[in-house]
Amino acid sequence: MAPTASEGAEQEKESGVPSHAPSVAGSVIEASDGLGGTNYIRIQNMASTANLGTRLDLKKIALKCRNTEFNPRRFGAVVMRLREPKATALIFASGKMCVTGVKSTHNATLAAKKFAYIIERVGFTPAEYMDFKVQNIVGTADVGFPIRLEGLVYAHSTFASYEPELFPGLIYRLVNPRVVFLIFVSGKIVLTGAKTEADLSQAYTKLYPVLVEYRKVHVASLPGTQPITETETAALPVSTTATGDGEGVADVRQMEEV
Prior knowledge:
The protein is α+β, with helices and mostly antiparallel strands. The chain has eight helices and eleven strands. The chain has helices at residues 5-15, 58-64, 105-122, 149-155, 197-213, 230-234, 238-241, 247-257, and strands at 28-32, 38-51, 68-69, 77-82, 87-92, 96-102, 133-142, 160-161, 170-174, 179-183, 188-194. Strands 1, 2, 3, 4, 5, 6, 7, 8, 9, 10 and 11 form an eleven-stranded antiparallel β-sheet that branches. Strand 1 and strand 2 form a beta hairpin. The protein is elongated, with a radius of gyration of 28 Å. Mean pLDDT is 80; it is low at 1-9, 227-236 and 238-258.
């Protein structure tokens, strides 16, 4: 019986040998906010590459393997999918491979090894060293408060760009570590461009104090959500409060005519 994800992680810690069971622990990262607290970054996708080191016959792979797609007229690579861990690979005739859909480095490495094993069973001999590299990690987080994007882009124009007519989020490009943030007024942020989980955590720690500085303090409520009190009604102009004798309506009509 194959070990579960949690059992595999425990075995890996105890023995120091990489486990062959998928892990779900890496999908959430705990990051410091730089102000003494912590927040969580949820990894949504991870893109990685590997090189099998041999030329491949894509038609043969597509015919002999399950869960594969190959349409050379549309795209010159075989699309192969795994169930456990849930991953998708683009396999090219040169032997290069791109693995996406995983949410941890452990699962990305495991998926790449499984894809290489499948290719080997078809009849090709992959190189022992696959030159596996994580190229991009995408994560999401919520700072928990609304943000003044206009003030942020004005003060950090070197790193930030904000075009609300084209895209509702502010794009903030951090130099070190090299991570790009998509910041929305609601406080939701998307982190992309990181190559390690540590870069993702470090980038969040650097940017969070800046976001706190541009936190919206007085958030206006939606129109009509709070009833008008008697005091507020008394403070309104006579033309809007007069009823019964039609004076208020007459004043409004005179204003419209003017």
